[in-house]
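sorry for the late reply, my laptop died twice this morning and i had to redo everyting from scratch. anyway the thing you sent over, i finally got around to it. pasting the sequence first so we're on the same page, its 101 residues, then the predicted structure underneath. double check i copied it right bc i was rushing
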Amino acid sequence: PCKVLVDKFDSVYGTCDGYCASINRTCTGAWNELGDSCLVDHPMECFTQLKSSDAICECGEAGVAPASPPPPPSPCDEQSWPDVDHGLVCGPCKVLVDNFE
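ok and here's the structure:
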């Protein structure tokens, strides 16, 4: 694990969870610092929000990047259309139609 004195703690990261996530790691420890130094004032939880410009955060090994959010649903809901050939959606509001006769 890596332990650092995080600057802009409250204005950018909010918590040590937030700081570690920003570098694709998981928080393993959190402390309020003493006088803008690496000296520990008191321990805190990784999710603790602190009104301070800095805090000490410890982050574990690099993990897997968070998954991308799913694409927004189509406004046309093509999956509900009848006779879509093999469920093939060709584009927004465009499908391959079976039984076209």
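The mean pLDDT is 81.
thats about all i looked at so far, will dig more tmrw
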